[in-house]
User: What shape does this take?
Amino acid sequence: MRSDGNSVRDARNRPILLTGANAEDLFIGPTSGDAQSAFFTMRSWNMNAARVVSSLSEFGKDPAGQLARLGRLARIAGEQQVVLIIVAATDASQRHNLPTADTVEHWTSVATHLKDAPGVVFDLLDGPRLATAEADWDLWRNGGTLDGQQYSGMQTLVDAIRAAGAMQPVIAEGLNGSLANIGPHLLSDSNVIYGARQPLATDGRTAEEWDQAFGFLAASFPVMIIGWRLPNGTPACADLDRESATELAARFLRYLEERSISWAATDIPQSEFYYERRISFLTLSDDPLPADWSCGSPKGYGMGPLVLWTLARNPNGRQILRNVSAADANTRIAPGSLATAYGTGLAPSSARAETLPLPARLLNTGLELTDSRGVTFDVPLLAVTPSHINYLVPAEAAPGLALVRHMLPLPAGIENRFTSTVTIRPAAAALFPLGAIGVRFSAGSTTPEAFDVFRCSFSGIGGGGCFAVPVQLPPGVSVYLSLYGTGIRGRSSLAAVRARAGEVELPVLYAGPHESFVGLDQVNVFLPPSLRGSGSVDVAVSIDGEWSNPLRLVIQ
Assistant: This one.
């Protein structure tokens, strides 16, 4: 990844726009399992970047432990195809926030450790700040003495990273959240993204103000907005109601997209991020904020649906037909896999298929898929509702970019609103929530004994009534798991399939179609005795290096 003119390009030289969130807000904890769940969920939202904090004080206490943590995060983010932005953070209580010798030492160590990690970006300092009337850009760039304290410049940090052999992009945030008047103080490096902050307060809501604060630089250099959010919960939003807040956010994000400015959102509540709430957000049309949103709502309330609503739409702000895996709501689908198309007004009511082979129309509603070769298929349907269509990706569809059309008879002269593209992969492993059962064989026995891995206290497989049943690994007993998902049958070989419980590799015995259910795949794995006593662990499957969503199990 590198900067090129005013854009950022990936390893295949394609321009990319970084869109993500501050990962600390999304509750990425110290374990790799937490990170795997969070990064996967970010990817399923169409995010491609996660910004994680490296505290200078914590780093000073345990450099080796912090480097190991960052290395794990970089590996897992790479597996989930998420760019990891590592930001150095100082004590927020200090009067001025500028780099010091400790910051230089931090980046020398981190850059040396991660110089070969391609999907990493180094954010030099979290929120550079001067408690002075004037912004001293020379001090920001070159360092110096202020109030008796010696500061290093941002250029010194870049030089330390490059001296360590790390060539990845760096983010240089402007003073006090702005890039205004940076003028001749740009850094001497060809791989820099300049950062600014925008809380959408009363003094930053017009294109003219955005131009002055950061937009002017986006014509020549890559720019990223660090931590944008709605200003609810503060006096700065007293003049906003739900409708005007939605309009402000949409206008701001449209401004960023038109100028190819990357962004990371902040203050997304946990309850608005993870799987249980996500599916309902996919069906939103023009009202992304909750009905009870107001300026007095808790800080960050509504950011989840607002961000997802933004990432699920096309550049013109109109809702598109969003195609995702039926197992995990991720946009990775494969031939023969189960998928779901989300929208509004997709069918007059609800219906499901009652026969095999699956029908191409239910309630006169259907989908057409044109693959990368130009071959068009009538898509087999499992169910239709006004908000979504469950379907089977045609097994003969070629991998590559495909066009999906919603087929519903409309009055003459009215254009069908729902046409979108989706990338079909040869395989795209996705596991169904709670989709696992266990089998054990006692010593000398050939008779299997099945046991529950998950249990629900009510009819259905989702929601708060379900929990993981502890899996026991007693001595002398062989224990196996069958994981149920979709998008797995297209694997190149069994050797290309891996499974992992936490950091422990699991032997894979079978990975392919389920014997009975259309589109359903199954992966059988062995649980080695070394997992005994692991507690809560995430189990995931990868095909050719691309990991599925994790299932959280409990192993005694």
